[in-house]
Amino acid sequence: MAPQRKRQRPDDYFVDWKEREALAESMIPIVGTLARENNVKCYIYGKSLVNLSVLDIMKTHRWVRQVEDNELSEFETIRVLNSMSKLNLGP
Protein backbone atom coordinates (compact mmCIF):
# COMPACT_ATOMS: atom_id res chain seq x y z
CA MET A 1 0.00 0.00 0.00
CA ALA A 2 1.39 3.40 -1.01
CA PRO A 3 1.90 6.04 1.69
CA GLN A 4 -0.70 8.78 1.81
CA ARG A 5 0.30 12.16 0.40
CA LYS A 6 -0.06 15.24 2.59
CA ARG A 7 -1.04 17.43 -0.35
CA GLN A 8 -3.55 16.54 -3.03
CA ARG A 9 -2.40 16.20 -6.62
CA PRO A 10 -3.07 19.44 -8.46
CA ASP A 11 -5.76 19.62 -11.10
CA ASP A 12 -3.54 21.75 -13.30
CA TYR A 13 0.16 20.90 -13.06
CA PHE A 14 1.28 24.00 -14.96
CA VAL A 15 -0.53 26.34 -12.56
CA ASP A 16 0.96 24.42 -9.61
CA TRP A 17 4.45 24.68 -11.13
CA LYS A 18 4.07 28.44 -11.65
CA GLU A 19 2.87 28.93 -8.05
CA ARG A 20 5.78 26.92 -6.64
CA GLU A 21 8.17 28.76 -8.97
CA ALA A 22 6.90 32.12 -7.67
CA LEU A 23 7.32 30.95 -4.08
CA ALA A 24 10.89 29.78 -4.75
CA GLU A 25 11.62 33.16 -6.34
CA SER A 26 10.30 34.95 -3.27
CA MET A 27 12.54 32.82 -1.02
CA ILE A 28 15.76 34.15 -2.57
CA PRO A 29 15.76 37.62 -0.93
CA ILE A 30 14.60 36.20 2.42
CA VAL A 31 17.35 33.57 2.45
CA GLY A 32 19.91 36.18 1.37
CA THR A 33 18.86 38.66 4.04
CA LEU A 34 18.95 36.01 6.76
CA ALA A 35 22.44 34.97 5.64
CA ARG A 36 23.92 38.47 5.29
CA GLU A 37 22.28 40.42 8.08
CA ASN A 38 21.60 37.74 10.68
CA ASN A 39 24.31 35.20 9.84
CA VAL A 40 21.60 32.52 9.67
CA LYS A 41 22.13 29.90 6.99
CA CYS A 42 19.03 28.08 5.75
CA TYR A 43 19.30 24.38 4.96
CA ILE A 44 16.89 21.74 3.75
CA TYR A 45 18.11 18.28 4.71
CA GLY A 46 21.72 19.45 4.73
CA LYS A 47 21.52 21.38 1.46
CA SER A 48 22.05 25.12 1.75
CA LEU A 49 19.54 27.47 0.15
CA VAL A 50 22.02 30.37 0.09
CA ASN A 51 22.92 31.60 -3.41
CA LEU A 52 20.63 29.13 -5.19
CA SER A 53 18.59 29.93 -8.27
CA VAL A 54 14.82 29.47 -8.44
CA LEU A 55 15.24 26.18 -10.25
CA ASP A 56 17.88 24.96 -7.77
CA ILE A 57 15.52 25.69 -4.86
CA MET A 58 12.79 23.72 -6.61
CA LYS A 59 15.21 20.86 -7.31
CA THR A 60 16.18 20.79 -3.64
CA HIS A 61 12.52 20.46 -2.64
CA ARG A 62 12.07 17.68 -5.17
CA TRP A 63 15.17 15.90 -3.82
CA VAL A 64 13.67 15.93 -0.31
CA ARG A 65 10.39 14.55 -1.67
CA GLN A 66 12.31 11.69 -3.25
CA VAL A 67 14.48 10.99 -0.19
CA GLU A 68 11.62 11.10 2.30
CA ASP A 69 8.99 9.72 -0.03
CA ASN A 70 6.83 12.47 1.36
CA GLU A 71 5.90 15.99 0.41
CA LEU A 72 8.07 18.96 1.27
CA SER A 73 6.47 21.81 -0.57
CA GLU A 74 7.59 25.31 -1.29
CA PHE A 75 4.25 26.32 0.26
CA GLU A 76 5.51 25.03 3.63
CA THR A 77 9.05 26.36 3.31
CA ILE A 78 7.98 29.93 2.55
CA ARG A 79 5.90 30.06 5.74
CA VAL A 80 8.91 28.95 7.80
CA LEU A 81 11.21 31.46 6.10
CA ASN A 82 8.71 34.30 6.58
CA SER A 83 8.44 33.44 10.27
CA MET A 84 12.23 33.28 10.62
CA SER A 85 12.64 36.65 8.95
CA LYS A 86 10.39 38.26 11.57
CA LEU A 87 12.45 36.91 14.47
CA ASN A 88 15.55 38.52 15.93
CA LEU A 89 17.95 35.73 14.95
CA GLY A 90 21.72 35.59 14.85
CA PRO A 91 24.33 37.80 16.45
In a few lines, what is going on in this structure?
The protein has 91 residues and is mainly α. The protein has 3 helices and 2 strands, in the order αββαα. The chain has one domain.
Features:
91 residues, mainly alpha, 3 helices
Report on the architecture of this protein.
With 91 residues, the protein is mainly alpha-helical. The chain has one domain (15-84). It has three helices and two strands; from the N terminus they run αββαα. It has helices at residues 13-38, 54-68, 74-86; strands spanning 43-44, 47-48. α1 (13-38) crosses α2 (54-68) and α1 packs parallel to α3 (74-86). The chain is globular, with a radius of gyration of 14 Å.
Largest sheet: 2 strands, antiparallel
Share of helix, binned: 55-70%
- Which regions have little confidence, pLDDT < 50, spanning 5+ residues? none
What form results from the Cα inertia axes? globular
The count of β-strands is 2
SSE sequence, one letter per element? HEEHH
User: Strand arrangement, largest sheet?
Assistant: 1-2
Question: Which helices and strands appear, and what pairs or packs with what?
Answer:
Blueprint: H1 13-38, E1 43-44, E2 47-48, H2 54-68, H3 74-86
Antiparallel strand pairs: 1-2
